[in-house]
Amino acid sequence: MPREIRLNAFEMNCVGHIQQGLWTHPRDQSTRYGELGYWVDYAKKLEKGLFDGMFFADVVGVYDVYGGSADAALRNAVQVPVNDPLMLIPAMAAATRHLGFGVTANLTYEQPFLFARRMSTLDHLTGGRIGWNIVTGYLDSAARAIGIDGQIAHDDRYDLADEYMSLVYKLWEGSWDDDAVRADRAGGVYADPSKVRAIHHHGKQYKVDAMHLSAPSPQRTPVLYQAGSSPRGCRFAATHAECVFVNGQKVEGVKEIVDTIRAQAVQHGRNAADIKVFMGATPIVGRTDTEAKEKFEDYRRYVSSEGALAHAAASLGIDFARYDIDEPIDTGKSQAIVSNVTAMTRAAGPQWTRRKLLEQMVLGSRQTPWVGSAERIADQMMTWSEATGIDGFNLSRTVVPECFEDIIDLVVPLLQERGAYKTSYGEGTYRKKLFGHDRLPHTHNAAQYRSGAK
């Protein structure tokens, strides 16, 4: 039997997300990002296609590395303006029944006590369909926005994140017993005080002496996503993540990352099956190969090279504007997304130039698009799944909504015919749909903080 493929729509509450410039295409509707109805219709469409989730990226700074200013990002709508993705979730959840929502939140800039309540609230309001993409940040502009001179060093951000996670686990898992809420009208007792406790966390970065303000939600801890592929990021994922997001590169490279994270998870006392891996992909689908190629050429006319370089400069921590078109680029000691630098070196070779980088970014991003008929795209998905051990794909938008309509109308039926895609949703929470249980398993690091845990 083929492996079941899971799909997320990879989105952001902004105009230009990954494929820079495509917002200018006459059929693209991403400039409607400020309309709630746009997102509600979007969620309904994805649920019709039995998507597992909508995965929201987010940043809390601007891309100001290229040319030393944010001008290129502003001109090209490169993830600015960007609105808060968490605000969209209740409306989309009210219009759907099964679709999960993975939301990026930067723990470096989120006060953990209040953030824990916000996520518990969303878990309640969605009936247990919320996930958290754990990020530590990589933009100096975000650090300056909250009064820090510059970004914390890459590995130090993960050390802070480990403590942050232990604190929110204590709040989500340990503050309220499962049976603390009695809702006893006759006796006049809503919650049993003996089953609710303050947690006491006195760490290097955080000090909290308080009970969690939210009663236990369906999942307690949200489904945990993480996207780091550096050695330190892999170690963090093996400890905390349930779903890992990796960038597509060569098959061998993706398989190595998948195998490494799962092997490290086993070393931490977890099961390899406790981690599902989603790979980023950008499919451009047609009924035939010719139709898909024509669509691709149409899209290419709207690509912004300046926007692509502005995005890449921030993600890689390198100001490409300082280099001539064929001048070798020094990657140096970037404190941005280390795994991006590694992946780009694999793709472009050790001696990058702006020309090589632009050759990689044929559709306005470093992610090479898949172009072909529905049959070809279905074949690629199944081949990648079998060859690398990934569980599914985070599908990056190109021209919306047609890019996802093509997947839903053309590719999904083929995958279903081949037994590689579900024909209906299972019941239950986001975690139950993915893993078969509502709560984190006892093998997870968070379990030690549960009431009564030994």
TrEMBL record:
<dbReference type="Pfam" id="PF00296">
    <property type="entry name" value="Bac_luciferase"/>
</dbReference>
<feature type="binding site">
    <location>
        <position position="154"/>
    </location>
    <ligand>
        <name>FMN</name>
    </ligand>
</feature>
<keyword id="KW-0560">Oxidoreductase</keyword>
<feature type="binding site">
    <location>
        <position position="230"/>
    </location>
    <ligand>
        <name>FMN</name>
    </ligand>
</feature>
<keyword id="KW-0288">FMN</keyword>
<dbReference type="GO" id="GO:0004497">
    <property type="term" value="F:monooxygenase activity"/>
</dbReference>
<feature type="binding site">
    <location>
        <position position="229"/>
    </location>
    <ligand>
        <name>FMN</name>
    </ligand>
</feature>
<dbReference type="InterPro" id="IPR036661">
    <property type="entry name" value="Luciferase-like_sf"/>
</dbReference>
<feature type="domain" description="Luciferase-like">
    <location>
        <begin position="27"/>
        <end position="390"/>
    </location>
</feature>
<keyword id="KW-0503">Monooxygenase</keyword>
<feature type="binding site">
    <location>
        <position position="104"/>
    </location>
    <ligand>
        <name>FMN</name>
    </ligand>
</feature>
<comment type="similarity">
    <text>Belongs to the NtaA/SnaA/DszA monooxygenase family.</text>
</comment>
<protein>
    <submittedName>
        <fullName>N5,N10-methylene tetrahydromethanopterin reductase</fullName>
    </submittedName>
</protein>
<dbReference type="InterPro" id="IPR051260">
    <property type="entry name" value="Diverse_substr_monoxygenases"/>
</dbReference>
<dbReference type="GO" id="GO:0016705">
    <property type="term" value="F:oxidoreductase activity, acting on paired donors, with incorporation or reduction of molecular oxygen"/>
</dbReference>
<dbReference type="InterPro" id="IPR011251">
    <property type="entry name" value="Luciferase-like_dom"/>
</dbReference>
<feature type="binding site">
    <location>
        <position position="158"/>
    </location>
    <ligand>
        <name>FMN</name>
    </ligand>
</feature>
<feature type="binding site">
    <location>
        <position position="58"/>
    </location>
    <ligand>
        <name>FMN</name>
    </ligand>
</feature>
<dbReference type="InterPro" id="IPR016215">
    <property type="entry name" value="NTA_MOA"/>
</dbReference>
<keyword id="KW-0285">Flavoprotein</keyword>
